[in-house]
Write a structure and sequence with these properties.
It is built from 14 helices and 16 strands. The protein has 445 residues and is α+β, with helices and mostly antiparallel strands.
C-alpha cells in the first residue's frame, strides 16, 4: 500500500491525472500466466504429466538421478511456447540423433502433439529443478503421415469452432473463442476462450461431447495469452515478442517504463494486448547495468563551477547525460533553470558533484551548430550566385526606390495626373482641358 502511495505521489508531480493513474495500474497487471501450457495441479514429483491422455510420461521423482546435459532435449509445442526438458538418452545412438528444428511426436499435458526441438542452453539447464524433467515422453520423430494427420485435424478444429459458436448462441453464453485444437491421436478437443469473469459451461460441455464424440477440455486464458496465440505486429512494426521469441511472460512494472525514459502515457507504453510492453521487462536488465554509474532521480547534486545545488531531474543512460534542475535563489540573484551535463562531468565523493571542464558546454547537442547571421546569409548568397548579384544595381544607403503606385497621387514616381491640381486638401477633379478651335485649325493646316 505504501508503494502505491509513493508511486501516485511521483506521478502527480509528473502531471499524471487520477484517471491515467488508474489506467497505468490496470496496465501493470501481470496475473495472466501462460495458462494454456501447463496445469500446476498435475506437476508433482513422480506424477504423470496428465492423468488422461498423457501416456506413460512422468515427471522426475526425487529418487531419480539428476539427468546429464547430453541425455536431455529442449522442446516446445507451439511457436515461442514454454520450454520443456525431456529425458531422451537414446539420442546418442546412431540414427536417433536430434538437432535444432527437428519435429517430433511427444506427450504433453494435453496429450500427444507435435513438438519442435530447440537449441539447448547450459544456463537454462542449470536453472531447472529435478521435477522439471520429464521421462517417457518422447514417442518418435515426426513422419509424413503425422504432418498429413495434423492438416486434417486443423480442418476438423475449424468445423468444431462453428459448432461451439452455434451452441453458445443457443445457450446464451458470452465468450470469445480464440482457438480450437485437436490432439494428434484425435481423442480430445481443446477450446481456448476468453471471457469477463467465470463462465458456467457445464451444459456446453455436454452438448459438445454429444456432437463431437470426443473428450472436451475448456481453457480460459487472459489477454496476453490471447495475443500470443493469435500473433500480429507490434507498434514497432515487427512480429510480437511474445509470438516470436518469448517463451515465458515476464512481470512488467511502471517503474521500468519510468527508468527507461518512457512517457507515462498509457497509449504509448501498452501493446495490442492492453498490457505494458513485454520489451520493458527483458530490456530492463540492460538499463539497470547502464544506470549504475548515474545518480537516481531527485538526488542532490552540486556544481563545482558555480557552487549551486541542484537536483537530478532525468537520467538518459543511452545518451550518456543527465538533466539537472537548479532552483531559484533570490539572494544570489540566480534564476531557476535546467541544464544538461555529460556523463564525463559526474563525480562522486560522498555526494554527487558536477565537474565540467571549461572547454565543454552544457548542451552538447548544440556544439556543432553555427548560427548564420544576416551578413553571412548575404555572403553565402553571393558565393552561390555571383553573376546574378553583380548585375543587380547598387543603391545609395542600401535603399531601393519606392515602387510605382498609380493609386497614390503623392508618389513622385508616378506620371503626373492631368486631373491633379494642388495638394491633397485642394484635390479636385476637373474634366480634361479642351484646346481652342483656333489651335485646332492651325494644327490642321
Amino acid at each position: 500500500m505504501d508503494n502505491n502511495r509513493k508511486f501516485m505521489k511521483l506521478d502527480r508531480n509528473m502531471d499524471v491525472s487520477e484517471e491515467e493513474f488508474r489506467t497505468l495500474q490496470e496496465l501493470e497487471r501481470n496475473d495472466d500466466g501462460f495458462k494454456d501450457e501447463e496445469n500446476s495441479k498435475y506437476k508433482k514429483a513422480g506424477s504423470p504429466i496428465a492423468p488422461l491422455g498423457g501416456g506413460d510420461a512422468l515427471y522426475f521423482d526425487y529418487t531419480d538421478e539428476y539427468p546429464a546435459f547430453e541425455d536431455v532435449i529442449a522442446i516446445q509445442f507451439q511457436p515461442a511456447g514454454k520450454v520443456y526438458w525431456y529425458f531422451y538418452p537414446e539420442q546418442k545412438n546412431p540414427g536417433n540423433e536430434l538437432k535444432q528444428g527437428d519435429i517430433i511426436v511427444a506427450y504433453s499435458e494435453r496429450g500427444m502433439e507435435l513438438a519442435t526441438v530447440l537449441n539447448k542452453s547450459m544456463d537454462d539447464y542449470k536453472r531447472q529443478n529435478k521435477i522439471n524433467f520429464i521421462k517417457n515422453g518422447f514417442v518418435r520423430k515426426a513422419e509424413a503421415a503425422d504432418f498429413e494427420r495434423e492438416k486434417q485435424l486443423e480442418i476438423k478444429a475449424q468445423s468444431a469452432k462453428e459448432v461451439i459458436l452455434r451452441v453458445n448462441k443457443e445457450l446464451g453464453i458470452k465468450m470469445k473463442i480464440i482457438k480450437v485444437k485437436y490432439t494428434l491421436d484425435d481423442t480430445k478437443a481443446i477450446f481456448y476462450f476468453s471471457a469477463n469473469g467465470r463462465v458456467d459451461f457445464r451444459e456446453l460441455i455436454k452438448r459438445l461431447a454429444y456432437e463431437l464424440k470426443r473428450r472436451i477440455e475448456m481453457r480460459q486464458i487472459g489477454v496476453r495469452d490471447t495475443t500470443k496465440i493469435m500473433g500480429g505486429l507490434g507498434p514497432c512494426g515487427r512480429t510480437l515478442c511474445c509470438r516470436k521469441h518469448m517463451h515465458n511472460f515476464l512481470p512488467v512494472s511502471i517503474k521500468m517504463a519510468k527508468d527507461q525514459n518512457f512517457s507515462l502515457n498509457p497509449n504509448k507504453i501498452s501493446g495490442i494486448c492492453g498490457r505494458l510492453f513485454c520489451c520493458l521487462g527483458y530490456e530492463n536488465a540492460t538499463y539497470e547495468e547502464l544506470r549504475k554509474d548515474y545518480p537516481e532521480e531527485e538526488t542532490a547534486i552540486f556544481d563545482r563551477t558555480s557552487n549551486r545545488k541542484g537536483f537530478v531531474k532525468k537520467v538518459n543512460a543511452i545518451g550518456k547525460n543527465i538533466t539537472v534542475f537548479f532552483p531559484e535563489n533570490p539572494e544570489k540573484k540566480e534564476k531557476a533553470e535546467e541544464k544538461i551535463f555529460p556523463k564525463s562531468a559526474l563525480e562522486f565523493n560522498e555526494r554527487w558533484f558536477i565537474n565540467l571542464p571549461q572547454n565543454e558546454t552544457n548542451n552538447h547537442d548544440l556544439d556543432n551548430i553555427t548560427p548564420i547571421v544576416a551578413k553571412e546569409k548575404e555572403v553565402l548568397r553571393e558565393s552561390v550566385n555571383p553573376d546574378e548579384n553583380s548585375e543587380k544595381p547598387q543603391f545609395q544607403n542600401n535603399k531601393r526606390p519606392a515602387q510605382k503606385d498609380s493609386g497614390n497621387p503623392n508618389n513622385p514616381n508616378n506620371k503626373r495626373n492631368p486631373n491633379w491640381h494642388g495638394n491633397r486638401k485642394n484635390f479636385k477633379k476637373f474634366p480634361p482641358r479642351k484646346e481652342n478651335k483656333e489651335n485646332q485649325d492651325t494644327n490642321k493646316e
